[in-house]
Write the structure tokens for this entry.
Amino acid sequence: MAGAVVSGAQVSYISQDCEEIPEFLGRKYGHMAKRLDLSFNLLRSLEGLKTFSYLEELILDNNLLGNDLLLPRLPHLHTLTLNKNQISLESLLDHLAEVVPSLQYLSLLGNIACPNELVCKEKDEDDYQRYRYFVLHKLTNLKFLDTRKVTRREREEALIRGAFMKVVKPKDAKASSAAASASPEMHYTPLPAGSRDLTNHRGILGKCRYIYYGKHSEGNRFIRDDQL
């Protein structure tokens, strides 16, 4: 078929602008394909993968896959790359743990799911490392994540702390500031109500009654004995 490139058990269908996997691919190659490359398309659904039950490698880079991503059960799949899609971690990892139990290599670069400082300037190496711990906690069989091999130390940290390493986006600072401005109770001031207007600058006078009766009073130094 036009656009499909086949070499042994490897099938490629790249840069075809398809929004779903063509039915003919599964019908013709699903029974024999071990490696399927669908990069640089417009895929939003993976429904057509059901017939590719022997897949070991699946390349889905540069598509439009989002959080509704659903894979069929692929028990032999050990390599999955989803670089440059529109995926977050909300439900992806639990889904992968269920449908691809043999997964050893996963790459999520270029997604919201992967807080890589090369893609997002607001992220740093600490964010990325926490992401790795969280992913390894969920997918315990991984040997490679993105471009880096999983180390023994990472695996140990993921076992101990991985469940608490999910990278959470902080609340919008502007929204927090607006909320604070709307709550006058949050801004304490000891000034009387009449002097809290910042545009009305007036001096405030006050007085209090205070008498010190202690023997260390400063005034006691200047009282002679005959005056007591």
Summary: The chain is about 20% helix and 10% strand. Residues 125-138 form the longest helix (14 residues).
